[in-house]
Amino acid sequence: MLTFDLIEPVVLTAFVRELPKPAQYTLDTWLPNRNIQDIEAAFTTAFRRNRAAMFRAFDAETPIGQRDDFQRQRVALPPIGQKTLVGAEERLRLEMLRSGGDNTAALIQALYNDAQINTNAVLARMELARGQVLTTGKFTLSGENGLQGIEADFGVDASHLPTAATAWTNYATSDPLEEMRDWADLYTDDAGEAPAFALTSRQAIGNMLRNEKILSQFTNSGGGTPSVITRAQLAALLDANDLPQLVEYNTQVYTYAGVSTRVIPVNKMIYLPANPASLGNTFWGITAEALELVGMNNPQLTFSQAPGLVGTVTRSGDPVRTWTHVAAIGMPVLAAPERLLTATLW
Question: How far apart are CA 191 and CA 48, in angstroms?
Answer without folding.
Answer: 9
